[in-house]
Amino acid sequence: MSDTRRRVKVYTLNEDRQWDDRGTGHVSSTFVERLKGISLLVRAESDGSLLLESKISPNTAYQKQQDTLIVWSEADNYDLALSFQEKAGCDEIWEKICQVQGKDPALDITQDPIDESEEERFEEIPETSHLVELPPCELSRLEEIADLVTSVLSSPIRREKLALALMSEGYIKKLLGLFRVCEDLDNREGLHHLYEIVRGVLFLNKAALFEVMFSDDCIMDVVGCLEYDPALVQPKRHREFLTKTAKFKEVIPITDSELRQKIHQTYRVQYIQDIILPTPSVFEENFLSTLTSFIFFNKVEIVSMLQEDEKFLTEVFAQLTDEATEDSKRRELVNFVKEFCAFSQTLQPQNRDAFFKTLANLGILPALEIVMGMDDLQVRAAATDIFSYLVEFSPSMVREFVMQEPQQTDDDVLLINVVIKQMICDSDPELGGAVQLMGLLRTLIDPENMLASTNKTEKTEFLSFFYKYCMHVLTAPLLANTAHDKNSKDLQEGSTKINPVCPDNFQTAQLLALILELLTFCVEHHTYHIKTYIMNKDLLRRVLVLMNSKHTFLALCALRFMRRIIGLKDEYYNRYIIKGNLFEPVINALLDNGTRYNLLNSAIIELFEFIKVEDIKSLIAHIVDNFYKALESIEYVQTFKGLKGRYEQEKDRQSQRLNRYRRDARSLDEDEELWFNDDDDDDDGEAVEKSRMEDDFSDSYGKYMEAKKGAANGANGANNNGKAAVIPPASPVVTPNNSSSSSVKTVALPATPVVKTALVGLVDYPDDEDEEEEDEEEEQSPRKRPRLSS
């Protein structure tokens, strides 16, 4: 048997009864030694890897659908499909399958022979070894036919046999002929039996039957049969809806009759599945899997046929962006593009990629820029859905377009600003559209999905662009609603257009909460750009104004924004918070909340708990110094006492550190100690002018150095290791600025008070002692001890 390679796509049916694409490759049929039989092999066209290896079993039922599909089941709940690029390839593989099974290639389904074990499992009666014998298609036998169709649904083998019988005798068209007779005679009993028959035939789940039932000359009669549900007093009017109410709108005339027929068929079959047929029970959920597949592959074919018709799509976008196009026509065009994008979700990833690139080349994004700014709510909603498809598919494509837009003087025309303004101006009280748009904006500004391109500049360039041209539009409602003075310079250009409303308005509060959520996301992911913006606009102060809102959810959003900033443990942010005294509105909110144990109370306490646990020293010192008196009465949590404890520990640690630098741990030479003691005795308690003290110090220092030099010559510096730095004669005075803190330590006298500076010279100046004694008492006050680490 020769190997003929054909291009195919491999699909598998997942648990949700949706087809998953497994890749594109070339199919061949060959003998596989390991499987001991002729098998279907599909090798990926990209790397030659094996996508499928399936033995053609004589007991497997294969189905050929729509001339280019072969579908079969290999195990329980594991369905496979091969979608051929060419009909000739499908026919050739189908012939090989039929040859292995000894079947006639003219049939669209291979018969599943009876297996004895299956007979036992399903407890079939002996007559099942033959084809199901259908009663004559007559009015008087409708009840018998209905009972037969209903009885076989529980047995897979009998379903197969009934399907073969229905196809072989042209039975479906005969039944539909009887339907027209019953309807003319108003034979309700017969119509009720036909409902059961047609519903049961659909549940046989056979594509070959669907091809007949959903053909142009049969489908409306099938819908008619399904109108006469015995459970209903009056029949439904589905045909009236499909023929009169549902209008097929050709926004641009479709010249391809096959494409038009496929669109009609898909709509009607989708209607049957979604509207007419009852929701299948847990026992019936797999009965309509082939119907789902039928619709799926129809949609794939429709999208492919439209995509290949370049003139059609070019005309669509030309009219969409033409100013002369009437609003009603433009609404239809936008809805068409939306439906087109929805159908594209059925494409495999590679084809979907080509689909959206085609739309991009045709100018979908400039068109969206126009229609999203229109007043028509329906048009804007449809345009938002299209935009969401594009952003979800490729955020980078949208970012690239935005940055290539000409930088006009009016930033309002930029696509992202159009999106932001639509979010801000959403008229829905629940802000459903605004929530959707906020999610899309977050996707666009998320660095995680920014491609690491060759030059790796997408993140830098786009964020710089966004903060320069778009951020002021996003924050305008926030700044407008938190300004103390409506005429102040804080109102950014464009913000007066937003119609500032009191933040206590519920819809405005919801909008501000959305904006804050986006800004909080920026704090977490944009570090440099958002930090600069917050500092320049004093944004945190404006946000904390919302802590006074009567809407607790808005106050929590403001608090969450501050919590994210503090969570970064960035000293630039900490200094900004301390300098602006920005804990005050948070602490006021805590105190105003009183004894209520609610989410706001817990969130504020968690903020301070985080500062305590992470030991953010600068913030702890600021909080204790400025707010501890107001907070010390809160004892139901130990957070604030813990902050005070941290503060005291840091104060003690700083004192010990200063003492280490003041005291000299070395053993002093007797000469040095005597010299220092003599010097202290002479000067203790005397008020001497600074010039005289410097002279005395210089003289005594000279004598000391001569004695020291003599001792050093005799002992060769043995006693100097680790005790005192050797000072060249040319530098008689050492100041704190030119001494090395790593190698020079202070010689501390027993009676000398603490020196408060961390930069210490070689020796204490005698005239410092009086000042140190005066400062000793001041050091005992805790209010003099903040920020010892600064």
Automatic annotation (TrEMBL):
Name a single GO cellular component.
nucleoplasm
Q: Where is this region: Disordered?
A: 673-695, 711-790
The residue stretches assigned to a coiled coil in this entry are 644-671
Residue limits of the PP4R3 EVH1-like domain?
A: 5-101
Q: Does the keyword Protein biosynthesis apply?
A: no
Residue span(s) of domain Serine/threonine-protein phosphatase 4 regulatory subunit 3-like central: 144-649
Q: Where is the composition biased (Low complexity)?
A: 711-725, 732-748
The UniProt regions of compositional bias labelled Acidic residues, in chain numbering, are 673-686, 765-779
A Pfam family per the record: EVH1_PP4R3
The biological process GO terms on file are:
DNA damage response
Q: Which UniProt keywords apply?
A: Coiled coil
SUPFAM superfamilies hit by this protein: ARM repeat, PH domain-like
Record-stated family:
Belongs to the SMEK family.
Function, as annotated, reads: Regulatory subunit of serine/threonine-protein phosphatase 4.
User: What's this protein's name?
Assistant: Serine/threonine-protein phosphatase 4 regulatory subunit 3
